[in-house]
Design a protein that fits this description.
Blueprint (H helix, E strand, L loop, with lengths): L2 H6 L2 H10 L4 H19 L2 E4 L1 H4 L16 E5 L27 H8 L3 E6 L11 E2 L3 E2 L1 E2 L2 E5 L5 H8 L5 E6 L5 H7 L2 E4 L20 E6 L2 H11 L29 E4 L12 H16 L3 E4 L6 H13 L2 H12 L10 H12 L2 H21 L5 E5 L20 H21 L3 E8 L5 E8 L4 H14 L14
Parallel strand pairs: 2-3, 11-12, 11-13
Antiparallel strand pairs: 1-3, 4-5, 6-7, 8-10, 9-10, 9-14, 13-15, 14-15
Helix pairs in contact: 6-7, 8-15, 10-13, 10-14, 11-12
């Protein structure tokens, strides 16, 4: 197998080749190294390759799971691996080493993946562009002058550029879906509680955080969801389990669904790029041709109340966590160790009270109830993933000194307001690379389903993957070129 063939296969295809004996896990590991050497100097997406593991990668040391021998990269925050660096994109955490395998990491290994390195993230995974003082800027393989999205921007750029077919990500306000949209990938945020955050965490950011992966195909997404969405003893709750394996939903009949759709920016005075609007309308037409009932309607809510509540919910207690990390690393939270916007985030957190959090949770509860009522009438909600096309580096950098935490959050929400809603409600949402701009940039479209109904998303996504395929689109910066 050469690099061109490797970089165009999805994870399931590579695992099938390993089982047939056409390629070995060690050969795949060497192809990952070759791909990193070829494209990473341009995109700066991979922080570290575990070269010690490359030479011992063989099918005897790997679990015989659905991704047998497939190279995989971990995001530099969230699920960790014992003995490996995890620095959270921050100088405050530089040199930090994880002290255990998270449950999700264990599931990745049981799935047969070979964990071979880690990818970039902005400092403490805040923001929609992957830029940090510690590791620099991660560039988009479609155009190195624009953002790859974030915070899972290193994962997205790695998958889009053909380094790996699938990579770990986490999503607290769109952190999987934003970079997936910017880089032309499939990005699913599972339902709240679908993927365990243990053992160190039960829930985080008032239930908004979920971890999963970014991929090129709906097939890899479905197979991975089967592999890692397993309840673990001690999880805060166990949500509705699917009736069938998610992989069985691939190519399954969707039936006629009632789908709400909107290009409303949701922000007062907000806008949606005309090319994004056109892409949404094309997808609406495709869904109508498939027999679905499409209704142009949008949930309504008090945006200012919602944004303030999200700001409080994300910030509450953050200062204590940062102080704890600083103590572990023998450092202090200061201008020397954290970026300006992150320092503002820290100070904002210190000023919050229990009453602030109580009122924020009250507002978020109202938001969730509102969406719950809305989804009594519709099976899905179709929206832009991002209101704007990927933009040049710098605008969303947390190194900016002219923005405080709340101003920064408002700026980000201008672009990704539709993604955060699913984190607040806990509902599953997926972005699919269903369009391209005139300049060739990917445009992602988001579908949001009822709580616990990832199966609905997989069925529809599989259908759209056939009717509006994207696999022929290869970015200019790619391991096969």
């Amino acid at each position: 197998m050469d690099l061109a063939e490797y970089s165009k296969c999805d994870g399931v295809a590579l695992a099938d080749l390993v089982r047939r004996g056409d390629v070995t896990p060690k050969e795949l590991a060497h192809l990952l190294v070759e791909a990193v050497e070829k494209v990473n100097p341009t995109i700066n997406a991979v922080l570290e390759v575990y070269l010690d593991r490359v030479e011992v990668s063989d099918d005897k040391s790997i679990s015989d799971g659905p991704f047998l021998g497939v190279p995989f990269l971990m995001k530099d925050i969230g699920a960790g691996e014992k003995g490996r660096h995890q620095e959270s994109g921050s100088k405050l955490m530089q040199g930090h080493v994880a002290d255990n395998d998270s449950f999700l990491t264990t599931f990745f290994k049981k799935a047969g993946l070979t964990l071979l390195g880690r990818t970039t993230t902005p400092e403490f995974a805040l923001g929609i562009s992957t830029e940090s003082e510690l590791v620099g800027v991660t560039h988009n393989p479609w155009n190195p002058n624009i953002t790859s999205g974030g915070p899972s921007g290193g994962a997205a750029a790695s998958v889009a550029a053909g380094i790996v077919p699938i990579a770990h990500g986490s999503d607290n306000g769109g952190s999987i879906r934003i970079p997936a949209s910017a880089c032309g990938l499939v990005g699913l945020k599972p339902s709240r509680g679908r993927v365990t955050l243990g053992p160190d965490i039960g829930e985080l950011w008032p239930g908004m955080l979920q971890e999963f992966v970014l991929s090129r195909t709906v097939r890899d997404t479905a197979v991975m969801l089967d592999a890692v969405s397993k309840p673990v003893l001690g999880d805060p709750f166990i949500i509705k389990q699917p009736d069938n394996l998610y992989v069985h939903e691939l190519n399954a009949p969707t039936g006629k669904m009632r789908i709400a759709w909107t290009t409303d920016p949701w922000q007062p005075d907000g806008t949606v790029d005309s090319e994004v609007v056109n892409c949404v309308e094309q997808v609406v037409s495709q869904c109508e041709e498939a027999g679905h009932e499409m209704v142009q309607v949008s949930p309504t809510f008090d945006y200012e109340e919602y944004l303030h509540a999200v700001c409080v919910a994300w910030a509450f207690g953050v200062h204590m966590g940062m102080d704890m990390f600083a103590s572990i690393m023998g450092r202090k939270v200061s201008e020397e160790t954290v970026e300006p916007v992150m320092l503002s985030f820290y100070e904002y957190s210190r000023r919050l009270t229990a009453v602030d959090m109580f009122m924020a949770e009250f507002a978020l509860n109202q938001f969730r109830r509102n969406f719950g009522e809305f989804f009594q009438q519709y099976d899905l909600l179709l929206t832009p993933t991002l209101n704007k096309l990927p933009e040049p580096h710098g605008k969303y950098s947390k190194m900016r000194k002219d923005l405080g935490y709340e101003e920064y959050m408002r700026l980000c929400e201008e672009t990704k307001v539709h993604t955060t809603a699913a984190n607040v409600t806990g509902q599953p949402a997926i972005t699919l690379p269903l369009g391209q701009s005139r300049s060739g940039l990917p445009i992602g479209i988001q579908f949001m389903a009822r709580f616990g109904e990832e199966d609905t998303l997989i069925r529809l996504s599989s259908s759209l993957e056939k009717e509006m395929p994207w696999h022929h689109r290869i970015p200019p910066i790619h391991a096969s070129r």
